[in-house]
Structures are given as C-alpha cells and as structure tokens.
Amino acid sequence: MKSLLRIGLAACLFMALPASAFAMEPLKIGVADEPYPPFTWKEPDGKWRGFEIDLSMAICAAIKMPCVTVDTEWNDLIHALTAKKIDMIMSSMVITDERRKVIDFSIPYYSTAAAFMGSKGSVLVLTPEGMKGKVIGVQGSTTHAADVQSKFGDVATIRTYQTQEEANDELVAKRVDVVLADKVALAEFLKEPQASGLAILADVPPGERGVTKVGAGLRKEDKALTGEVNAAIATLLANGGYDHLAKPYFDFDIYGLPRK
C-alpha cells in the first residue's frame, strides 16, 4: 500500500511540473542552405560547421537552451523567422534599417567590408566611368545587390544569383567580369583551386556601406530572448570566449569593432 501511495504521489508531482522541466524545446537557429565558409557550411555527414555555427552553440550554452540548426533558403530566412519556423537567424545577415522594420537584431557579432573580385591583373575603378559596360555578379536579396544596383545600375549590367557560390562560379566561367560580396567570404573562396586566376580588385570604401555589422535576427516580440542573446554575446566578447571561437577561422579580429 505504501509503495502504491509513493507511486501515486510521484505521479502527481510529475504531472504538476512544467514541461520545461523535462524537455525544453530546442531553439531553432536558421542558416542559409548554401555553403558560406568560413561562416557556415555543411559537411558530407550532414553536420553544419563554421564560425557562426560554433558561435550560435556558445550563445545557446550561455542562455542554457538546447539548439538545433535549421537550413533555409537565404531569401526565405526572414519569413521563416516571422512565421516561427525558426527562432533566430545566424547567417551573416547585415543589420539594416530596412530589415529592422520587420525583425529585431542582436548587438553585432562581427563586421566586415565589401569587395569586388575579378581576374588577376585587372584594374577596377569604382566610378561610373570605370564600371561602365561591366557585368557584375552579386547574390540577390543582399545589401550588396541593393548597393551595386543603386550605384552602378545605370552603367553596368547587374546579374543576381540565388547563392554566392553561383555568382563565384559565373566569374570562374567568365560569364561576369566581377562579383561583389563580403570580403572575408571572397578571401576564403580565393583559397580554392578554381579561383587561382582571381583576386580582390577593389575594396568598397567605408561610408558607402563598406564596413557592415552583422547580427542575429530575432522576432520583434521576443524581447526577453533578444536580451539574453545580447548578454551572451557581450560576455563572450569580454571573457575571451569569442576570440577562442574565432581563432580556428580567422587570423585577424573578425569582430572589428570597439570592445567595451
């Protein structure tokens, strides 16, 4: 009888406990489904690797939440977030006022410059006269695409691609003259054998959105989560954890911003 009572009491206590005490729903981290080394890429075994993957896992550990990586088309990331298919975007998404109208961002977790890549030995002058007649490849739905269309759309042919990988392939095949993208990602691509005839030709000057800040995208209503993510990033920057995560991927300070 006492055994039955103990079992019954344990069952009641079990039922009274919140579900989070037994199985916390994992935080779904959204990344673009294309390879974007050294930030994100998928190994042959299906596991996601890269700096942003490692950083997202460190953030989740800091806020004591399990996480799972969910790959989504780049163009659909913001919609997936607002539709609650994912809970946070960690996919080299630049913080812009236009995007802030729809979602919130964490504090920046890295910064970078934009650059043009083309054939070695080529000269590229970033003026309307210098870009006249050029065929420029760029990934669609990015700040780079908007900027190059605004600045050179009247004098050059702008071709947009679903992924940066496609734009790079078009350059290798000489179907475009140059591509515009994140300089760090371009530098990583230049390590590949197929890029042996290519080089960075010109950096986008600061002040023309040359230096951009990247943050985690979050839903506007998830204020508490945004606060926790901000605190986690700030702690990692302060205690050396960020630099430890970045060291295998970069030989320079990828954060690139003043640290408080």
Characterization of this structure:
The protein is α/β, with parallel strands linked by helices and 260 residues long. The protein has two domains: 23-109 and 215-246, Periplasmic binding protein-like II (D-Maltodextrin-Binding Protein, domain 2); 113-211, D-Maltodextrin-Binding Protein, domain 2 (3-Layer(aba) Sandwich). The chain contains ten helices and 13 strands. Strands 7, 8, 9, 10, 11 and 12 form a six-stranded mixed beta sheet that branches. The protein has a three-stranded parallel beta sheet with strand order 4-1-5. Helix 2 (51-62) packs across helix 9 (223-239). Residues 1-22 have low confidence and may be disordered.
How many helices in DSSP terms? 10
How do the SSEs run, as a string of H and E?
Answer: HEEEHEHEHEEHEHEHEHEEEHH
Number of domains: 2
Low-confidence stretches: 1-22
- Distance between the terminal alpha carbons, to the nearest Å? 63 Å
The portion of residues forming beta strands comes to 15-25%
Superfamily at the CATH H level of the largest domain? Periplasmic binding protein-like II
Question: What is the overall shape?
Answer: globular
Overall pLDDT: 90
CA radius of gyration: 22 Å
Query: What is CATH's topology name of the largest domain?
Result: D-Maltodextrin-Binding Protein, domain 2
Number of strands: 13
What's the level 1 CATH class of the largest domain? Alpha Beta
Helical coverage, percent range? 25-40%
Give the name of the CATH architecture of the largest domain: 3-Layer(aba) Sandwich
Structural class: alpha/beta
Give the biggest sheet: 6 strands, mixed
